[in-house]
Amino acid sequence: MPDYPKTSRNRVRRLPARASYDAKVIYEIIDEAPLCHIAFSEEGQPFVIPALHGRLGDQLFIHGAPASRLLQHIVADHPVSLAFTVLDGLVLARSIFHHSVNYRSAVVFGRGRVVERDDEKLRALEAISEHLLPGRWAEARAPSRAELDATKVVAIAIESASAKMRSGPPSDDKEDYALPVWAGVLPLALRMLEPIGDLRQAPDTPLPGYVRVLMSPCS
Amino acid sequence: MPDYPKTSRNRVRRLPARASYDAKVIYEIIDEAPLCHIAFSEEGQPFVIPALHGRLGDQLFIHGAPASRLLQHIVADHPVSLAFTVLDGLVLARSIFHHSVNYRSAVVFGRGRVVERDDEKLRALEAISEHLLPGRWAEARAPSRAELDATKVVAIAIESASAKMRSGPPSDDKEDYALPVWAGVLPLALRMLEPIGDLRQAPDTPLPGYVRVLMSPCS
Fold this sequence. Notes:
2 copies of one chain form a homodimer. By secondary structure, chain A is α+β, with helices and mostly antiparallel strands. Chain A has 6 helices and 10 strands, in the order E-H-E-E-E-E-H-E-E-H-H-H-E-E-E-H. Chain A has helices spanning 23-32, 69-74, 118-132, 136-139, 145-149, 209-212, and strands spanning 19-20, 36-42, 45-51, 54-56, 59-64, 79-92, 100-114, 152-166, 184-192, 196-197. In chain A, strands 1, 2, 3, 4, 5, 6, 7, 8 and 9 form a 9-stranded antiparallel β-sheet that branches. In chain A, strand 6 (79-92) and strand 7 form a beta hairpin. The first copy, chain A, starts with 18 loop residues before the first strand and ends in a 7-residue tail after the last helix. The interface between A and B is large, with 96 and 96 residues. Strand 10 (196-197) of chain A pairs antiparallel with strand 9 (184-192) of chain B, so a sheet runs across the interface.
């Protein structure tokens, strides 16, 4: 996959060594982030709103109610920016100044269009669903005609994007390494805790395999 | 603490029953979110960038390098919007349509100013540090004169804000409760995994108490 060209819009100015314009790197961050933050601007006033997303190739999909201000704004040919952020850990240096976080983030620029055709709409909803929980789409009841009509789906083609990331141990000033302060990385991860079955189902309803694979020492 | 007045800027239009304008609720979300997303607009082009934050009362603090485009923009008296989002779980309904997420989010509006005075700057940096890892500020080496000068701190007074949240089990259509599909909530939480000590320290350097309290079954 190609790089996104560097322009004044997507060029990373601070710490450019941490930047990437590689579509593959950017897509991986988009796919790993459970949600995104969408920014739009109305008469100079910026707004930022969290949203769930799906991705197919260079198309991002967002869904919501037809009356959603965000979705109405996006499809009125306004530019939007989306951020996808994964926090990987806290970086504890000996000095406050060198403290940092390990992270991977992508910032995307584009414009939206309404997804009108049923087949693309279903593929987009499947992408959003499978992004959150792979395997769920095939098991849950599919959207009815009325539900599909009550759902607005917006596609945003990625026009421009960049990624920025940090990984690895802290980096301290030479003279600080002698300080008796614990230094290192505290890895962070979003983990599934013990599933809570809905009380309104048969108590022996088995936990699906696509949920069991998410079990960890935290669950 | 009072409510933030509802205006066209902060009023939650979709599912207003999930909204809150209570400063206490909003502050709790801000304090729990490990990072925020800041949106700003330049000549109609929105940008959104992740950032670490601290809060003291109704003042939010962001820091970075003096050359940061974001910080330079914020302090030029431009309006900004910040989002703070905590993802609490996936809500699995019997139908795709009723799938949802449990979450708490706050959206804030304000304008920034540079924090010039050393005492306020240090309090702001302490707030950012203690927000990420309570207890760390007192142990790590404090910022030197040169480090303080190389750090720009911006304060954003919260002018307007709102929160939106969902919790609890899925809600399905009456006729779907009979479907043999596991339904419930998959709780999610950001957890610390096993700490990784920096190799450049004495191997017997003890893990600080303020890190040990973050240990969980995942660590």
